[in-house]
Amino acid sequence: MYVTKNLYEGYATFIDVPDHEFFHHAIQAAIVRLQEGHMDLLDVDKIKQELTPVVYCSSVISKTKDDDIIARTELNQRSTKKYLIIDADYNIGEEDESNRVRNRLLELSEELKCKLILYPTVSYPLKPRFRAVLFANRSMGDVAYHQAMTWLYEQLGVDATDKNDFRVTTNHNLPVFTNDKQLDAIYDNTENNEYGLLDNALWKLYPKIKSNRSKKKQFIPAKSKYDDVKLGRFHVIQGAKLLAKESEMLDYSYFWKIVHSVARAEIMEQITNELALTLMDIFASATTDEATKNEWEYSNRLEYNKTLNSLRGNEERLYKAKPLFSYDEWKQYVKFEGDN
Question: Could you say which DSSP state residue 94 is in?
Answer without folding.
Answer: -
